[in-house]
Design a protein that fits this description.
The complex is a heterodimer. By secondary structure, chain A is α/β, with parallel strands linked by helices. Chain A has 18 helices and 13 strands. Chain A has 2 domains: 3-163 and 365-380, Glycogen Phosphorylase B (Rossmann fold), CATH 3.40.50.2000; 173-361, Rossmann fold (3-Layer(aba) Sandwich). The longest helix of chain B has 28 residues, at 52-79. Classes of the chains: A alpha/beta, B mainly alpha. Chains A and B meet through helix 5, helix 6 and helix 14 of A and helix 1 and helix 4 of B.
Chain lengths: 381, 115
């Protein structure tokens, strides 16, 4: 195999993509330690051995916020294209983040470099027509949810279900039981965790809503304690300033999402991958997503699935309460939370459904399967 | 036809467009958008008979631009032309459609006051 075939270009933008990318790098290195990785990522991928062209730590942006960063995205695109032309990696692996990754895919296809998409964007949820773009730009898909395979098969794109890399991560890192017991000891009987997401915009939109409903819950039951999970240290000050506006028994914990979830009796979470983490620990949850009324109006016609939460979509029924909001409907959230705290039967049903779901999809090995598929494609190229 | 009838008709079609967009009634949406723009262009033309430059600026910015955006979206859906998700064009369309109505309303009110 020539030297150039040992180079892999890998691109991830979000925090979760960075973690999955890092695990994929470790799995690939286990199978072939000679491989060199170049591309875009964050600290986890860099730690795993990525030669980073651009650090994506500050680039998890959504919607129109991208416009403010347009010049840096343009530079990143230019640098990626230059790298692909100069170094001709044997494969380009894209992890989620389709807004930017589609440009990388287009450049790679033009240069005849095979493109693999790992953790595909959720086109089945909002924008199935974009599957045509995927077909044009990508050679192979490594999908993480079982229902994605038939969706892409129908569109004529080779797809392999590898499982969700989140479960590799959970098994790999283990859990600090000491932190779990500390949280429980500090907060006593009933702990409700608030997980507003990893993006700044999500924190700003969702945390006040969560805290308003927490205030209502606390008025009804003063023994309930709250923990806010801060997944990015850089958002601590922001979260702290929002929490201080409410007089609540509420602690902010940085970077210990798994421990926070495990110590909780109920999780109130933003719609996203974190809901799978909560499902893994079999904790009842409420899934909420909030957009402005204007964006709700714009985006509403594009939602083709009746669910916003992954656990409900995967179960194909409403196993946990969820709502896409365009106004501060904290009363609904508080009511649902209170029911799940107080009504043991409802809580038990929820846990049983989650157990069933996790038994189907909660197995580790996704990164290894993905690595095998990638090496197969490299060998056949 | 009195100008206020055109103004009210444009407003009604704007509402129908919004409702049919929200409830994904594609044919009704296209039909009502077409009628909204027809009424609005005719209204602008009648209101700005003595100000052709302003009329052409309004047509370019508030009519041609969003229609081009919609055409781009339709082409992208059928031919997958762009890397970017072009559904954001609806943000442009839904900012500029009410803007066209408001601009016409303001010009109409100014015309009535100074008539």
């Amino acid at each position: 195999m020539p030297e150039s075939s040992k180079k892999i270009f890998i691109s991830a933008g979000d925090t979760s993509g960075d973690i999955h990318g890092a695990n994929l790098i470790y799995s690939l290195l286990e199978k072939d330690p000679e491989i060199k990785f170049y591309g875009l990522g964050k600290e986890n991928m860099i730690k795993a051995g990525l030669h980073c062209l651009h650090d994506m730590s500050t680039k998890s942006l959504m919607w129109l916020h991208v416009l403010a960063e347009i010049s840096s995205f343009y530079k990143m695109k230019k640098d990626c294209i230059y790298f692909l032309k100069q170094e001709k990696p044997c494969v380009v692996i894209l992890i989620d983040y389709c807004g930017f990754n589609f440009y990388v895919a287009k450049a790679a296809r033009k240069l005849g470099i095979p493109v693999i998409y790992y953790v595909t964007p959720q086109l089945w949820a909002h924008g199935p027509w974009r599957v045509k773009k995927m077909k044009k730009l990508v050679d192979k898909l490594l999908v993480v949810y079982p229902f994605e395979k038939p969706f892409y098969d129908n569109a004529g794109i080779p797809a392999t279900y590898v499982g969700h890399p989140l479960f590799d991560e959970i098994c790999k890192i283990g859990i600090d039981e000491g932190v779990v017991s500390e949280i429980r000891d500090r907060h006593g009987e009933t702990v409700v965790s608030l997980l507003p997401g990893s993006r700044k915009q999500e924190v700003v939109r969702l945390l006040p809503l969560f805290l308003q409903s927490a205030t209502v819950i606390h008025e009804k039951n003063s023994s309930v304690r709250f923990v806010v999970s801060c997944s990015e240290e850089q958002h601590y000050n922001l979260i702290d300033s929002i929490v201080k506006e409410y007089e609540l028994p509420c602690e902010i914990i940085i970077g210990k999402v798994h421990e926070v979830i495990k110590a909780s009796d109920l999780c109130i979470a933003s719609a996203g991958t974190v809901t799978l983490q909560i499902a893994y620990y079999l904790k009842p949850m409420i899934i909420v997503y909030k957009v402005s009324p204007f964006l709700y109006f714009i985006a509403r016609p594009f939602f083709v699935t009746p669910y916003i939460g992954l656990v409900n979509k995967l179960s194909d029924k409403m196993i946990v309460p969820e709502r896409l909001m365009y106004r501060n409907d904290f009363a609904w959230l508080a009511e649902q939370a209170f029911q799940l705290i107080a009504d043991n039967r409802k809580k038990q049903t929820c846990v049983e459904e989650l157990t069933l779901l996790v038994s189907k999809i909660g197995k580790p090995g996704a990164s290894e399967h993905a690595a095998e598929e990638i090496l197969k494609l490299i060998d056949s190229a | 036809m009195p100008l206020y009838v055109l103004l009210i008709t444009a407003f009604v079609f704007l509402l129908v467009s919004a409702a049919s967009y929200f409830f994904v009634k594609k044919k009704v949406f296209l039909f009502s958008v077409l009628l909204f723009y027809s009424c609005s262009v005719l209204l602008s033309h009648l209101l700005l008979l003595n100000h052709p430059v302003i009329f052409y600026i309004i047509i370019a910015l508030l009519v041609a631009f969003p229609i081009i955006c919609l055409i781009i979206f339709v082409f992208d859906v059928y031919r997958a032309l762009f890397c970017i998700d072009t559904s954001f064009v609806f943000v442009v369309v839904w900012l500029l459609m009410p803007a066209l109505f408001v601009v016409n309303l303001i010009i109409y009110v100014v015309n009535v006051i100074y008539a």
